[in-house]
Amino acid sequence: MKQPGTIYEAIGGFDTIDRLVTAFYRRVGNHPKLIPIFPEDLTETARKQRLFLTMFFGGPKWYVEDRGHPMMRRRHLPFEITPERRDAWLECMDQALDETKIEEPYRTAIFEKLTMTAHHMMNTPDQ
């Protein structure tokens, strides 16, 4: 049996990314610590997240085609991302990964990569 070449392929491609992002933003849109830094309508935010995660986990580079170079830290600078908000974001993602039923070792690999990214996005100390 051929081993999958990327996390993206291993988890089932765009369908799984789509389910993960949908589960994630359902939580973000209701999280009191995250609501202040996200738009009320999460449609466009979720669309960009789908494109980014597809590329981030080894799938097609749709994000770059649509938005250019990710420059993720720079794109997030206008938002106050505190350690508390980082943790809330990761909590929502952890629950979304559970709901999506992504299997090991991919679930852990995904969460570890996103944890490193979330740490990198922090730009404001807790108040």
TrEMBL record:
Q: Where is the signal peptide?
A: none
Instruction: Cite the entry's keywords alphabetically.
Output: Heme, Iron, Metal-binding, Transport
Origin: domain of life: Bacteria
Q: Locate the transmembrane regions by residue number.
A: none
Q: Does the keyword Ion transport apply?
A: no
Asked if the Swiss-Prot or TrEMBL record annotates the protein with the keyword Calcium, the reply is no
Which Pfam families would you find in this protein's record?
Bac_globin
Family as reported in the entry's similarity comment: Belongs to the truncated hemoglobin family. Group II subfamily.
Matches recorded under PANTHER family: TWO-ON-TWO HEMOGLOBIN-3 (PTHR47366)
Entry protein name: Globin
- What is the originating organism of this protein? Lentibacillus salinarum
